[in-house]
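Possible regression after last week's pipeline update?

I re-ran a chain I had predicted before the update to compare outputs. Posting the input and the new output here so someone can diff against the archived version. Not blocking, just want to make sure nothing changed silently.
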Amino acid sequence: MKKLGFTLAEVLITLGIIGVVAAITIPGLMSAHKAKRLRSQFLKSYSTIQQVFKRMEADDVSTESTTYPTGTFYKTFMQYLQAPYDCGAVNNNGAGNNTKKILPCYNFSDKTKGYKSFDGKSNVVTNWFDDGQIALQDGTLIMFENYTGVKQLWVSVDLNGFNNPPNRWGYDLFTFEFLDGELRTMGDIQTKYNEVDKYCNPKGSGALNGAACAYRAKTETDYFKKVVHSFK
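New output (post-update):
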């Protein structure tokens, strides 16, 4: 009886074809998965911060930044989160710092590491994040900027924590502004940095490039796909 089977050459050709197909499709699938995960993390963080402000207002707790000394608002905010880790604040009236805190906190004393602009060429100044940091159980890092006497309250979110790269504005770092009782994505027309084409431009430059990317992340459904594709 004649036996049926494949020759070694046929097997090698088949494996070669499978390898080529895998090389073409797997990177795309991985990029799509990464983009989907980043978008999910962004929307979750946005919702979490919104809910805290709403609960504070429901409890008649002030959400007005001018009523809090510099670097203290985050302490009140933190009371509305589940099992948060207090990373401290740098500008707590000169009395507090987070230089002894370890990951997942952003340690300001380590000058070799820091957040980068959207294009990756500039360092984001630390005073965007120095008025308190809170690390959540899922790895999210929430950072605050509230300056005494100035009606300004910015909340920045590192979606995957400081110990996970790329630590880049517009990729895994996004900023919101609490304004007139509403949490707005930075880049919204009423926020301070509302020139989206200037402050969220992958081909742009400057230390503020990326500040307005939260607006695009919220309003453009394919934003993270484009970002992941651009910064492979």
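Follow-up from reviewer: compared with the archived run. The two ends are 56 Å apart (CA to CA). Marking as no regression found.
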